[in-house]
Amino acid sequence: MPLENKRIVYLVGFMGVGKSTVGRCLADHLNCSFFDTDEEVELVSGQQIRQIFEEQGELAFRGLESQALKEVSCQECSVVSTGGGVVGRPDNWQIMNRTGVVVYLYADWATIESRLLDTTQRPLAQNGTDEKLHQLWQTRQPLYQQADKVIITDRLNPQQVVEQILLALHIE
Ligand code: S3P
Asked: 168 C-alpha vs ligand 1 centroid, how far in Å?
């Protein structure tokens, strides 16, 4: 993967934007490993994200998430799909910027809202009101915009998003 010394493509973006689906597809295309920080947290803790939020609270989850990010950042060539809130901690940015390129998968609020309708595993989407979630989406925009590349995904299927990422990163 001709990304100079950057080994990892990190996908950031709000819940429901399709980071995991796109990430798997991109990793297949690049013939490299795929990691999902949410899955890593669940593996290490032996609990579902929902349970961690319920029993230990969000702060504990954020600690586990940062730890998971740190661990996957040691991998060779890989694609990492991150949880929507990973962008909230400067330390997480340091890790991502040092070891990879960060791609923000953007979707507008209407798209996100429709994709989160049936969610059962995302505590922040389930427990809050629609208005609160919209506010969170807005508040996070400047954080996501710190990414190296932004891909607008609203009218694209996962394969097309992958094509846009490859173009943006100048990967054949
Ligand atoms: C979160 C997003 C979720 C998960 C957790 C918190 C967030 O990941 O990490 O529920 O703060 O936006 P996805 O973005 O993969 O849904």
From this structure: 25
Q: Is the CB–ligand 1 distance for residue 42 below 6 Å? A: no
Assess whether the C-beta atom of 23 lies below 6 angstroms from ligand 1: no
Distance 172 CA to ligand 1 centre (A): 31
pLDDT in tens, the chain (172 residues): 445 567 899 999 999 999 999 999 999 999 999 999 999 999 999 999 999 999 999 999 999 999 999 999 999 899 999 999 999 999 999 999 999 999 999 999 999 998 887 777 777 877 667 888 999 999 999 999 999 999 999 999 999 999 999 999 998 7
Angle, alpha carbons 17-127-57 (nearest 5°): 95
Give the CA distances from residue 121 to residues 5, 53, 95, in Å, rounded to whole numbers and listed in that order.
36, 11, 26
